[in-house]
Each structure stands twice: as C-alpha cells, then as structure tokens.
Design a protein that fits this description.
The complex is a heterodimer of chains A (229) and B (432). By secondary structure, chain A is α/β, with parallel strands linked by helices. Chain A is built from 8 helices and 14 strands. In chain A, the strands form 4 sheets. A 5-stranded parallel β-sheet of chain A has the order 2-1-3-6-7, sandwiched between helices. A 4-stranded antiparallel β-sheet of chain A has the order 8-9-10-11, with helices on one face. In chain A, α6 (157-168) packs across α8 (192-206). The model of chain A has no long low-confidence stretch (mean pLDDT 89). The chains are: A alpha/beta (229), B alpha+beta (432).
C-alpha cells in the first residue's frame, strides 16, 4: 500500500514532532510547514492526500489557506487542529471549506480516525449508494426505510432526512446550517431549535440510550456527526 | 419705570395745554379762533406722543380751556355757536387717534426689545449649557441665567425632560423658563449620548483586549497540552500493558487540564457580562454531550438519568453543556464509586436540573460557599474549586438559580433552575 502524503501546517515545533511521529507510525508520509508561506511552497511543489492545519500561524490565519485552496477548486481534505475553542471559529472553519475540526488537546486515535474519514470522503465523495450501511444502521434511501440491528424503525420524513444526510457524510461533522438548508431549504436557517428537537426524537428511536448516544453525537454549538466506527 | 413715564405723560399734557392757553391769551386779538384751535391741536399732538392716556387728557383739557377762554361767551363753558362742537370733536378724535397709535408703537417697540433680549439670553444660555461637561453644569447654567435675565429663582427637578419650577412668575416669564428648560433638556440628552458612546467604546476595547489575552493564554496552554496527551496516547499504542494505566492517566489528566482552561475562559466570559446565546435545547442532548465529554473521567460509573418527556430548556447550548459537565464532574469527584442521579423536568416557565450523589455531603454551613471561586469543601479536595463557580456564573447569566443542599439519606444534591426568556414554541415533532 502506498503511503498517503499529509501536510502538517503548525507553528509549534513540539506539536509538529508529535504529529509526525503519530502519523508516520501509521504509514503516512509527513511534510511539515511552520507558516502559511511554507505551506504555500509545499502545496505548490507536491500534492497531498490531506492537510492538518493549525489556525494561529505566525504569518496569518490558517483559514486563508483553506479559502485559497477551495478557491483554486482543490478538494484535498483539510482537518483543522486548533487551540481556538470558540464554536464560531469551528463553524467559520467548516464554512470556509475545512472538512473537519479537532480542538487541542485531542487523542491520537481520534486524530487518525478523522484522517481516515477525510481520506475516504475524498476518494468517494458523499455516498450516493441507495443503501448505506453504517454500524447497526441500514439506510435505504430509495425506500425511505431504516433498519437498526435488523429491525425496521419508523422515522418521520424529517428524521429520515437528518439520518440520511449524516450517513452520507458518515464520520464527518455536519453543521446546523448545512442540515437546516438541506432539509428545510433556505428558509430554515433560523430553525436550529426545531433541528435539535428532531434530532432528540431521532436519537430516542435509533440509540439504545439516547442520553449516551453511541452513534449520533453532538458537536456542541457546531452540529452533529454520525460515527462510522 | 413705566409708572414714572405715565406720570410724565400727564404732566406733559397739562403743561402743553397750559402753554397753548397762555400763548393764546398773550396773542389776544392778533390771533383768530382757528389759530387758537391749532395751538391746542399742537398741544394734543405733543401730549399724545406720550401715549393714549395723556392724549385723551390733553384733548379734554384743550376742549375745556378753548371753550372757557376763547369761545363766546367767554369765561363760561357755554357754547353759542354750534360750529365749535365740530372743532371739539376733531380735537378729541385727534387726541384719541394719535395717542392710540403712539401707545401701540411703544408696545410693539417694547415687545421687540424684550424678544431681542430673550433671544440673546437664550443664546448665551445655550452657549453655557453646551459648554457644560455634566448635568450639574447644565443645571447651574439654568439657575444663574434665569436669575440674571429674569430675576427669577427656580428649582430644578431630577428627571428628564428637565422640570424647572419658578418660585413666582407670570405667563410671559413662564414661557421663557420653558424655553430654557427645553434647551437644557437637549443639552443634557446630548451629554448622555456622548457618555453612552464613550462607555460603549471603552467596553468594546476592554472586551477586545480580554478576548485577545484569553485566546493567547488558551492557545499557549492548549498546544503543549495537546503535545503531552498526544504523545502519551501514541506511546500507549505500543507500550506494554503494565504501562497502560499510567499512560491513560496522563491522557485523562490532560483532558482535565483542558476542561480547566475551558472553565477559566467560560467564567471570565460570563462574569464579563457576555449575553448567553439562548436556544431551545432538549436537555437530553446536553446531558448526552456532557457525559460524552466526561467519559474518560467517569469511566463506568453508574449514572441514572431521569428526564421527563421532551424536556427542553431555553439555554445557551455550549454553556449549558459546560454547566452539566461541571455538576457531574463535581459529583464524581466528591463521591467516588457512588452512583450519580441526574433528573430534569420543566416546571411551566423553566427547566429544573438536579444532580445528586451519595458522597459525604456538604459540611454544615457551606451550602452557599461551595459556589465561591476557589472554595474547597475540605482540604483533601483536589481541584481549584472553579467548576461550581462556573456553574453559578452560567446560571446567573441566564437569570437562573442554583442551590446545594444535603440529601436525605446522605450525599449532596445540586439543583439548577433556568427560567425561559421567551415563550415556549410549539414543537410538533411527529407530524413533521
């Protein structure tokens, strides 16, 4: 198996060193960049399978790199690894075109899982299969039917829409805004509270313990994620 | 002053008529009766220039004197020739007309002089009032100006628009006082606006500074923390089983440090008066997220969750999750190995959440102090006592209440109530 090239854009040397060690141990080829300028040089010289991006860089905001990449029609997955905690920062990063977001500190396992998800979505963008299988779920998009552990579960059209959208992007965080505009259309933007209530109802139907969701997790202030492992 | 002028007018009238009479008598036969009449007309004209009253008096005196001294039969008030009645009437009419005209002119002149003075006074007041740096300065300007221009003493109310009550004043002055009051009110409103703008500007720059400082601190703490937990979790992948416990502890403690940083940020934010971004959130979702976040700390601790129906709270979801996480973390710290009970329900106008443990409970008398920052119930207590202070901060920011008490049968119970800040929308989930 050829190793995937990952660009690590991070100004802290220890952090870069840790990331290099963790990624190389899992057969990724790592290129380091300590600034936006170095990142630009690296992306011009070589193509990468994924980019890990810190936002607070000495010569500017990491988001400018994401915006520039997306403006140049690059679909390389970008995972933001940032010390910024404000939820607005996360939403901004996702809206700018980042694929996912990890807040420091995070575990290596979580990091590797996010990279795997990002790489998978890069090679096969949103799943368009009529039937999606994730964990205990079988989601039949043509027949609007959901099986959980083999049992048919009755969902309302909105609940089905939410689950299907999350499943198509399984493992990836989907923002409230994305869910609302996809399911309610452009007029739904301000309806986050309805979304939350529908997700709560959905959890009660598909999770064993809705107060400890195993699959349908909340990214507080950002959105939801359907775990895929 | 005007009384004095009136007396002088009547004096002028008497003197003028007397002079006309003396002149007429002195001239004797050299003057005709028409000449005499003209002399009296002159006297009436002179007197009428002092006003309507003197004009009338001069006309009356002139008619009397003319009749008495010059019209036949002389030295009586009888009139033999009725033609003279016309002369009398003309004299009288002239007196009245000229006098009235003069009076009106005088009055108009006085009024315009008054207006001019008041405009000047108002202008000079406005100059002083807008130069004042605060309300007291404007009020001082009001009092001195009214005293100097009107000679009126006033008392000034404490509210806005400014209420100025003269000790005594006629309608005319009252109007001027009101005009001053309007100007003073405008001046004070301007001052208040300027003050509000200055405060807002200060608040923005303070907020900016604080946010910059906090994000710097947060950034500088989180990156080394990420390296520590990251390296420990990488090491664990290849480490022998005997080292797993230590490495797991490094990761868990790293996570705890991360939460402390988060709490520091949150407490500074809510204490600085940041408005919570309230939304309708199912409590179940907040509990789920809080339990997930605490999973490394809680391990396989038994936690019973009792949430009634589709209980939703009107709460900032990010702060709400932090609130629940801190309550659960507190319970798990003080009652290790004991089950934790979490219950939530709506009470019509708000959401009530209770977190109860079966630990040692609260030392008597500390029920309120537990929410103080850096308070520790016992000296064995680890942690800096920030978690419960954050809970109180978040609750207060939502205008809610938080209380701690000992639980029947042992342990402590923390009860939070967050009142709705908007009417509960109708959530019709099944038909959607």
């Amino acid at each position: 198996m050829t190793s995937s090239a990952v660009l690590v854009v991070e100004d802290d040397r220890s952090m870069r060193k840790y990331l290099r060690g963790a990624l190389e141990a899992h057969n990724y080829a790592v290129t380091e960049a300590g600034s936006l300028a170095e990142a630009n040089t690296a992306t011009a010289a070589q193509s990468f399978a994924a980019v890990l991006l810190d936002l607070g860089l000495p010569d500017g905001d990491g988001l400018t790199l994401v915006r520039a990449m997306r403006a140049a029609a690059s679909t390389i997955p970008v995972i933001v690894i940032s010390a910024r905690q404000r939820e607005d920062d996360k939403v901004d990063a996702l809206d700018a075109g980042a694929n996912d977001y990890l807040t420091k500190p995070f575990g290596t396992r979580e990091l590797l899982a996010r990279i795997r998800v990002a790489l998978r979505h890069a090679t096969q963008p949103a799943s368009d299969d009529p039937v999606i299988r994730i964990g205990p779920f079988v989601i039949d998009r043509a027949r609007h039917e959901v099986l959980v552990n083999g049992d048919v579960v009755h969902l309302t059209p909105i609940e089905f829409g939410i689950l299907a959208l999350l499943a198509r992007h399984a493992g990836k965080v989907i923002t409230h805004g994305q869910l609302l505009s996809e399911i309610w259309g452009p007029r739904g933007k301000e309806q986050t509270h309805y979304l939350r209530v529908h997700v709560a109802a959905l959890r009660r139907k598909v999770e064993q313990d809705p107060t400890r969701p195993r699959w349908l997790t909340t990214e507080q202030g950002v959105g939801y994620r359907l775990r895929d492992e | 002053m005007s009384e004095h002028r009136a007396w002088r007018g009547y004096l002028v009238a008497s003197v003028a008529v007397a002079a006309a009479t003396l002149l007429g008598v002195a001239l004797g036969q050299r003057a005709s009766l028409a000449d005499e009449a003209m002399l009296y007309a002159l006297a009436i004209l002179i007197a009428a220039l002092s006003g309507r009253g003197p004009g009338l008096v001069a006309a009356g005196l002139s008619i009397g004197a003319f009749d008495f001294f010059f019209v036949d039969p002389r030295y009586t008030l009888d009139v033999s020739d009725p033609r003279f009645l016309i002369t009398f009437a003309v004299m009288f009419a002239a007196g009245v007309a000229i006098g009235g005209l003069t009076s009106r002119l005088r009055a108009a002149e006085a009024a315009s002089r008054d207006r001019e003075q008041r405009t000047a006074a108002l202008l000079s007041f406005t100059r002083d009032a807008t130069g004042a740096s605060d309300r007291a300065g404007v009020v001082r300007a009001v009092v001195t100006h009214l005293r100097e221009t009107l000679g009126v003493e006033v008392t000034v109310g404490a509210g806005l628009p400014l209420e100025i009550t003269p000790v005594e004043a006629d309608d005319d002055r009252r109007q001027f006082v009101d005009a001053i009051g309007r100007q003073a009110t405008i001046a004070i409103e301007k001052l208040q606006l300027a003050e509000a703008a200055r405060e807002a500007e200060l608040a923005v720059s303070t907020e900016k500074l604080r946010t910059a400082l906090l994000s710097a601190v947060s950034h500088d703490l989180r990156t080394p923390l990420a390296v520590i937990t990251g390296l420990a979790s990488t090491l664990r992948e290849t480490a022998p089983a005997s080292e797993h416990e230590s490495l797991d502890m490094i990761v868990a403690e790293g996570g705890r440090l991360g939460r402390i940083v988060e709490n520091l940020l949150a407490v500074t934010k809510v204490e600085a008066g940041a408005t919570p971004r309230r939304e309708w959130v199912p409590i179940e979702e907040l509990v789920g997220a809080a339990l997930e976040r605490l999973a490394p700390t809680l391990g396989d601790r038994k936690i019973t969750v009792d949430i009634r129906g589709d209980a939703v709270g009107h709460i900032d979801p990010v702060l709400g999750e932090l609130l629940l996480a801190n309550l659960l973390d507190n319970a798990s710290k003080h009652a290790p190995d004991a089950p934790i009970d979490l219950a939530a329900r709506r009470d019509g106008t708000g959401i009530i959440v209770e977190v109860a443990d079966r630990g040692p409970g609260l030392p008597p008398g500390t029920e309120h102090r537990v929410f103080e920052r850096f308070f520790r119930a016992t000296h064995h207590d680890n942690g800096v006592g920030l978690g419960l202070a954050v809970c109180r901060g978040i609750t207060t920011a939502h205008a809610g209440t938080i209380e701690a008490k000992n639980r029947d049968g042992g342990g402590a119970v923390f009860r939070v109530r967050i009142p709705d800040a908007a009417p509960l929308p109708k959530f019709d989930v099944e038909s959607a």
